[in-house]
Request: fold
Amino acid sequence: MPATVPGPRIAIVGGGIGGLAAAAFLHQAGFTATVYEQAHALTEVGAGLVMAPNAVRLLRRLGVMDQFLRRAVPLDWGWEFRRWTDGNVLSVEKLSGVCEQLYGERTYVVHRADLLDSLKTAVPSEWVRLGARCTAVDVRKNVVLLRFADGSQVEADIVIGADGVHSVVRGAVTEPSPPTYSGICAFRTIVPARAAPGFALRRAQTLWLGPGRHFVHYPVAGGQAVNVVAFAPAGNYTDESWSATATIEEFQAEFADWDPRVTDLITAGGAPGRWAMLDRAPLRRWSRGRITLLGDAAHAMFPFFAQGAAQSIEDAAVLARCLGSYANDPEQVLKRYEAARIERTTRLQEISHARREINHLPDGPEQRARDAALAESDPLVRNGWIYGFDAGEAPTS
Reply:
């Protein structure tokens, strides 16, 4: 471990995956930081996510793989696409062995809470302040003042906004731009393995494609549960909160005429969460003076390429590397970080957005052309620019 670098007081607003990853990489680089998290415990709502090689190699460098592997599930088969009516397999790709050969790491699926627990092991516990809800960010000469809901305030030399899609810090960086209504909502549930159909326990990420909807499932929690997330028309529903819920009946109604295996999986789950997916245009800048953004606060994206958490971890690794050259000029360092990241994340935002239309085609000529293309495609190779990227070595100047 390098010696602690005397220097900037770094405040990280948000103790989710991006915020803890930033703290972990800063600690590894010899800096000190304080994480301000509004919740009273470091927990993750939501459910599962995919950790592709571009993120896994960074977790390995943080030294958290032993903890990660206790609960993560390696994917033997990758993106298995099925037709909505009868489950006919449109495309499937083997990952085990191939992924390591191409990119040096496997692909895993993991519950968000388990990933957060892994990152926690790389962050000193005294760095984390819970119950600290940031309400305002004031820019002053050569310092940033953070104000909190309990009336306290702190000064920092550098502020990292890792406070998600509803970021307070973002307002100090760029002009507010309200999200637009996407017309899509997502349902999510966790099904205990004992209640899940056998086909859902396979080490595969299965995507069922249908008109206006798609349905995804894969095992998590060391194979003890199945993560289910599904996308459907939102109607008048606009609540973006991950704590909002729906009923099983509402979930079933959206997929009532689908293959019975889909509806059986819905029935096996408990009351689902439900949130509206709001659309956010890519930001033109992330940094202003001594303040920068990271993760969803900077580049919230639709989850259709499963790269949201991975990009937060990449952000954290690059930011720590840029700060490693700190020379009493934080503004230039944060500009370097933004310049190193914004093109890649904007591209991922754009392709994730476009995938919505492709996944939800109505039955007909375009759908048949898509299905034929899936059968012939090799996404593991085609998306090498995503999975082969190494944020620990990519240029930052």
